[in-house]
Amino acid sequence: MTQTATATPAGNAPRYVRVLSIAGSDSGGGAGIQADLKTFAALGCYGMTAVTAITAQNTQGVRAIHGVPPEMLRAQIDAVVEDIGVDAVKIGMLHSPEIVAVVADAVRRHRLPHVVLDPVMVATSGDRLMADDTVGVLVRELFPLAEVITPNLDEAALLLGHAIDGPAALDAAARELLALGAPAVLLKGGHLAGDAVIDVLIETGGRLTRLEAPRIATRNGHGTGCTLSSAIAAYLALGLPLAQAVKEARAYILGAIAAGAEVRTGQGAGPLNHGYAPVAQRVQ
């Protein structure tokens, strides 16, 4: 019988808070599963991975993508869940309909908790990371299984079929995204011009929260979306309710951006400083 993610080790031994990243690999280390693992560790969680694709990329862009076979992805997820267990899941780059189907099946079979879905469609460099025929499958199969989805403006525009022109349009766009089937949406407005970064969280029932912070001047924004969704998953695994997990995750990522703002890594968009204020690994 398949062990579920809620299973615990034998006896009363303590265990780490466990977070699984199902995402692509970034060879440059700034985004994807590399950023996810750094974030989990910085927030005191035990990170695990199921790799969906291997990318050849750096701070300047994506050079190549090689998808992992669906059966190998399924084996990775099953191996982790059936032995170690999972307290929350971050889902990132899913490049094909077959890969989306494998992930959706695993979430259902294992009843994986606290699923944070970052619909990674476009890299910071502008490179497309998801085939067009995958988008509809993602919405149909995974949006209803997620606790929250975290699209940026480019991804939201692809999902909705229209651009989001400015801060005043964020609330309406968030409501449109919620109507696609996810229980909650965090629409990230960081790509809008202005001195402030505005995100909008909308939950089932229409409760809407606008989150605003001063923009930090930096060229190092690679992996911000991956990091934010991973931080939300970590805080959910640690027991915070969604709205508080989002607020804490935003505070963490703003600190990571500020701590790495002046650091030069590569010739393009560099990474954040994920380890600027690490906490001890938590046990339960």
Please specify the SSE layout and strand pairing.
Elements: E1 18-26, H1 32-42, E2 46-58, E3 61-67, H2 70-83, E4 88-91, H3 97-110, E5 115-117, H4 132-141, E6 148-149, H5 153-160, H6 170-178, E7 184-188, E8 196-203, E9 208-214, H7 224-237, H8 242-259
Parallel strand pairs: 1-2, 1-4, 4-5, 5-6
Antiparallel strand pairs: 2-3, 7-8, 8-9
Helix pairs in contact: 1-7, 2-3, 3-4, 7-8
For this entry, give a set of tags.
UDP-N-acetylmuramoyl-L-alanine:D-glutamate ligase, alpha/beta, three-stranded antiparallel β-sheet, 284 residues, globular, disordered N terminus, 20% strand
Quick structural gist:
The chain is α/β, with parallel strands linked by helices and 284 residues long. It has 8 helices and 9 strands. The strands form 2 sheets. Strands 3-2-1-4-5-6 form a 6-stranded mixed β-sheet, sandwiched between helices.
Describe the 3D structure.
The protein is α/β, with parallel strands linked by helices. The chain has one domain (18-259): Ribokinase (UDP-N-acetylmuramoyl-L-alanine:D-glutamate ligase), CATH 3.40.1190.20. The protein contains eight helices and nine strands. It has helices at residues 32-42, 70-83, 97-110, 132-141, 153-160, 170-178, 224-237, 242-259; strands spanning 18-26, 46-58, 61-67, 88-91, 115-117, 148-149, 184-188, 196-203, 208-214. Helix 1 (32-42) packs across helix 7 (224-237), helix 2 (70-83) runs parallel beside helix 3 and helix 7 (224-237) crosses helix 8. The protein is globular and about 55 Å long. Mean pLDDT is 92; it is low at 1-8.
Helix-strand pattern: EHEEHEHEHEHHEEEHH
**Count of structural domains:** 1
Number of helices: 8
- In the CATH hierarchy, the architecture is 3-Layer(aba) Sandwich
- Regarding CATH, which class? Alpha Beta
Low-confidence stretches: 1-8
- CATH fold annotation: UDP-N-acetylmuramoyl-L-alanine:D-glutamate ligase
The overall strand count is 9
Name given to the CATH homologous superfamily: Ribokinase
- Give the overall shape: globular
User: Main beta sheet, described?
Assistant: 6 strands, mixed
User: Helix content range of the residues, please?
Assistant: 25-40%
Strands of the widest sheet, in order across it, are: 3-2-1-4-5-6
State the secondary-structure class: alpha/beta
The overall pLDDT average reads: 92
- How many angstroms does the end-to-end distance come to? 25 Å
- The Cα radius of gyration reads 18 Å
